Amino acid sequence: MENRTAKDENIINAYRDGARTGFEALYGAYYNDVLYFVLNLSGDAHGSLDVTQTVFMKAFKEFDRRSISDINNIKSWLFRVAVNEFYQARRSYVTRIKYWVENLFRFMEMERDAHAEYIEKKILEEEKDSLGKWLLQIEEKDRAILVLRYYDELSYAEISDILEIEEGTVMSRLFRAKEKMRRLMENEPE
């Protein structure tokens, strides 16, 4: 297992001062990480906000029932919950229909609300070479591996823990995902 980060130690210490103080420290330390992870995974600004909200509600309830110090790597735990919540939301029939309808209109020129536009602008700053466009063209499980490895800079062990798969599977999926991205990039017209 990975050693705790200084950020995790600060959160654990804040929880010793009270659940509210601890949760505020947890939220402040990892909200953006979880939001951008889910946003990169889904490409859906509104759905990402919903999933992120659910992740932190679960964290609030979980750490009210048990000690946060039982968790060795808080960020990995939050990402694992985010992955599970993302896939649970994706399995919902209504959500699935909504996802396809929203993504059909995503590529059309339409006015967007300011909040969604702001979030997308922030993500696009990191997508200098059209990476985001290509990421959205590959399967979610491959996208998750790439995002965790290259956006969030997590180790194979951390990714394995978050996605609950073997490290060897992480490595092979990462290799296949990079190959898919390479083929997409090669087939892109100049």
Please describe what this structure looks like:
The structure is a single chain. The protein is mainly α. The chain has two domains: 1-126, no CATH class; 127-190, Arc Repressor Mutant, subunit A (Orthogonal Bundle). It contains ten helices and no strands. It has helices at 6-16, 19-42, 45-65, 74-91, 93-106, 114-126, 131-135, 140-151, 156-163, 167-187. The N and C termini lie far apart (45 Å).
How is this fold's topology laid out?
Layout (H helix, E strand, L loop, with lengths): L5 H11 L2 H24 L2 H21 L8 H18 L1 H14 L7 H13 L4 H5 L4 H12 L4 H8 L3 H21 L3
Q: What is the number of helices?
A: 10
Radius of gyration: 18 Å
The fraction of residues assigned to DSSP E strands is: under 5%
Q: What is the straight-line distance between the termini?
A: 45 Å
Helical proportion, percent range: over 70%
DSSP summary, beta strand count: 0
Largest sheet: none
Backbone shape: globular
Low-confidence stretches: 107-111
Entry summary:
This protein has 190 residues and is mostly helical. It contains ten helices and no strands.
